[in-house]
Q: What sequence folds into this?
């Protein structure tokens, strides 16, 4: 699959990435909540450079991030933060996303984010930053990806 695109689509990628991460970052600053995490940068690549891909649909973005982060938290509380735990966390997150039909590659990094954090997050991490940040990015993608496109984004919201 070739992702080389026209200038307008690449401009949409620029505006989408800046707007998505900028808005999440601004909300984090304004609310004093940790809403931003590195995998959201890769999520933006899918949302704005490959919006028609199944991996870039809202269901995959939001639920994929939540599932992967939940697995990361469970593995951390079970095994700690060593290399074995990190490897198992990523592997189990991939398996869980596949079994649930919500594969989102950037979410595969969530167990590593959790286990490499200076202070390991609690269950509230699932709401802030995971769910809230993913939802904001999906809303931004819905706004940015639709004007002027012959096709509409998302291709689907919740179907498998």
A:
């Amino acid at each position: 699959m070739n992702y080389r695109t026209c200038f307008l689509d690449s401009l949409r990628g620029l505006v989408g990435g800046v707007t998505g991460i900028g808005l999440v970052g601004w909300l984090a600053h304004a609310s004093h909540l940790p809403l931003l995490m590195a995998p959201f940068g890769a999520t933006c690549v899918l949302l704005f450079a490959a919006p028609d891909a199944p991996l870039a649909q809202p269901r995959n973005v939001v639920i994929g991030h939540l599932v992967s982060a939940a697995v990361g938290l469970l593995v951390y509380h079970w095994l700690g933060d060593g290399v074995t735990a990190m490897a198992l966390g990523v592997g189990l997150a991939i398996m869980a996303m596949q079994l649930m039909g919500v594969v989102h590659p950037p979410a595969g990094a969530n167990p590593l984010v959790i286990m490499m954090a200076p202070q390991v997050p609690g269950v509230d991490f699932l709401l802030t930053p995971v769910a809230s940040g993913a939802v904001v990015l999906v809303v931004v993608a819905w706004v940015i990806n639709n004007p002027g496109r012959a096709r509409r984004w998302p291709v689907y919201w919740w179907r498998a």
